[in-house]
Design brief:
503 residues; alpha/beta; 3-stranded antiparallel beta sheet; 14 strands; binds S-adenosylmethionine
């Protein structure tokens, strides 16, 4: 680890990733569900978006390429991250994003802060509970200076008490790993081996809590870059929601809700008995404490607003009725049962069936979906429809429904495919830029590859060529599987991505 990182991993880069919780439209929906007026970006709104700790910048790039009239600013202190992100933007010709190399502990007081515009939306994913308090304090000062009145801030962090049973596991992984390796990735590998050996030896503090036990098992399949940036930092410290909320109050930010939309519905999150205890309090911070004691969920995705303007239910529902949704799945893949934190829930087939059928034709307005003639169920609950469809990743909000793809987004998707397919698993979930959605369209590199070939005039008759191009080192079975993947992309995924305006 270098001397300039205040104990944060700086000797290896972080992996690229897209997280929809960072998208302004999802943040805005979380605000609306929480009954707070939200700056839901209109189609031509000149949004200013700021990302702190942006890593290699995929999230900022997808949002910039999807919204050419937005101003996107993304900051990281690791020059390797900033160099990679700038190169990606230059190659793809994305001109409305600026990547700044700056340390968040001092940026607020640095002349370079003048380069950071005031923001309507800010996002920090994977930063807060991994950096020392001096960086957290600097973040709060920067937010105080840069969040516009009414602006929204997304912040993810490792949550207490869920992480409590894993504190020993992380400490062994980090402290013992550091003795056994020099670079952070080696330290993570060595630390993981030790933790796995302790699990095999039935160390009580690892096997006693089922989720720690299961986590250690899963960690064997996780990328080492992820493990290093998650576990090796000196300041790694999960937080209570109340403490994070108190810290952000220093930037006049009020906690509003969760960007994991399902968590905003008490009946989907807690059992009736747990809700009874929770509802003894009207303080939302205490309610969250009760919730966090009931749930196993270890990563919180909170949204805060600078100056929360409460809406009455009628105003809120009117705003929710005007949201447009684009389907992420084929209608035949609609699940009519889903695992919620409170248990398995049935989704009414005669309600969600007609809704997903209607959405297969393209994005739909929530108010129009709830007015469909053959619907059985509640027509006056746009919050629940949005919570289920977006909260379960079945749909994305659409900012410009029906808009044709724009060259900037198409070019970005091609460059992303070219860059990532050299290093990444082609099935890994990422997102494509879409002007119609104004946010990332969930997809894989297989999807982007096929889109590119189809745009070059090829069709299902070329599948064997694609298999030869991408699977030349596979055996017969592997090539057969790859052929099936391409067939599914052509049959199922392409119509979805076309309806989402990706190509
Ligand atoms: C776990 S990574 C998350 C990256 C990205 N947000 C993502 O989710 O893919 C945390 C990021 O915060 C950056 N970071 C850590 N300390 C920082 C500081 N003091 N100032 C600026 N960036 C910092 C790291 O370089 C790293 O890119």
């Amino acid at each position: 680890m270098s001397g300039w990182g205040s104990g944060y991993v700086t000797d290896i880069t972080y992996m690229t990733g897209y997280y929809r919780q960072q998208s302004p439209s999802v943040m805005a929906l979380a605000c609306l569900l929480g009954g707070v007026a939200s700056p839901l970006p209109g189609p031509d709104h000149p949004v200013s978006y700021l990302e702190l700790g942006c890593g290699q910048g995929l999230g900022a790039l997808v949002l910039a390429a999807s919204n050419p009239h937005w101003t996107v600013t993304a900051i990281d202190f690791n020059p390797a991250h900033v160099a990679a992100a700038r190169a990606w933007a230059a190659q793809a010709g994305v001109t409305n994003v600026t990547f700044l190399e700056a340390d968040l502990s001092t940026l607020a007081e640095d002349p370079a802060a003048a380069l950071v515009p005031e923001a309507d939306f800010v996002s920090m994913h994977g930063v807060w509970s991994w950096v020392p308090s001096v960086v957290q304090d600097g973040i709060v000062r920067l937010l105080r200076a840069k969040v516009k009145p009414g602006g929204a801030v997304h912040l993810s962090y490792n949550a207490l008490p869920a992480w409590g049973p894993a504190l020993g596991m992380q400490r062994v992984l980090r402290d013992c790993g550091k003795r056994l390796g020099s670079r952070s990735d080696r330290q993570a590998e060595e630390g993981l081996k030790l933790v796995q050996a302790l699990r095999a030896a039935e160390a009580l503090q690892i096997v006693r809590a089922p989720w720690v036990n299961a986590l250690v098992e899963r960690m064997g399949g996780m990328p080492v870059q992820y493990l290093a940036h998650e576990y090796i930092n000196d300041a790694w410290a999960p937080c209570f929601h109340a403490d994070v909320s108190e810290a952000l109050a220093g930037a006049k930010l009020d906690w509003v809700g969760s960007v994991n939309l399902i968590e905003n519905f008490a009946d989907l999150t807690l059992s009736p008995e747990q809700r009874e205890v929770q509802q003894r309090f009207d303080d939302p911070i205490l309610r969250e404490l009760v919730k966090d004691v009931c749930l196993e969920r270890s990563l919180r995705h909170d949204v805060f607003v600078r100056g929360a303007r409460r809406m009455n239910p009628a105003m809120r529902d009117a705003a929710l009725m005007d949201v447009w949704l684009a389907l992420n799945i084929a209608p035949e893949d609609m699940p009519y049962e889903a695992d919620m934190p409170a248990g398995r829930a049935a989704l009414n087939r005669s309600f969600y069936g007609p809704i997903t059928e209607a959405m297969a034709a393209g994005p739909q307005r929530v108010g129009d979906l709830l007015a469909l003639p053959d619907l059985e169920g509640k027509r006056d609950n746009p919050a629940e429809l949005i919570g289920i469809m977006v909260g379960l990743d079945l749909a994305e909000p659409a900012a410009r429904p029906g808009a044709a793809p724009i060259p900037a987004a198409t070019r970005f998707n091609r460059v992303t495919n070219a860059n990532l397919s050299r290093t990444e698993n082609l099935g890994r979930p990422i997102a494509a830029a879409s002007y119609a959605l104004g946010t990332g369209a969930p997809c894989s590199l297989f999807d982007l590859y096929v889109i590119e070939r189809v745009q070059a005039g090829e069709d299902e008759g070329s599948v064997d060529n694609w298999v030869r191009a991408l699977g030349n080192n596979l055996d017969d079975e592997g090539r057969g599987k790859l052929r099936d993947v391409f067939a599914k992309v052509l049959r199922v995924r392409l119509p979805i991505l076309r309806a989402q305006g990706v190509y």
